[in-house]
Design goal:
Elements lengths: L1 E2 L6 E2 L6 E5 L2 E5 L2 H9 L1 H17 L1
Helix pairs in contact: 1-2
């Protein structure tokens, strides 16, 4: 499972509505609207994913 970097929704990679590559990492999205938002500011959302991943590991 991955997390949509824009809205935070948990996404099954095989059922993702869209995906995008950024700095060698694949991001999965619940809808094309989230993918479009990510495309406008990828560094902002990629950083958010890194923080969320750390939080998940601590719990």
């Amino acid at each position: 499972m991955s997390r949509d970097p824009v809205c935070g929704m948990r996404i099954d990679e095989s059922k993702a509505a869209a995906k995008s590559e950024y700095k060698g990492k694949t991001f999965y999205f619940c809808c094309t609207k989230c993918k479009d938002s990510f495309a406008k500011e990828p560094s902002k959302y990629a950083a958010k994913v890194d923080i969320d991943s750390l939080k998940d590991q601590l719990h």
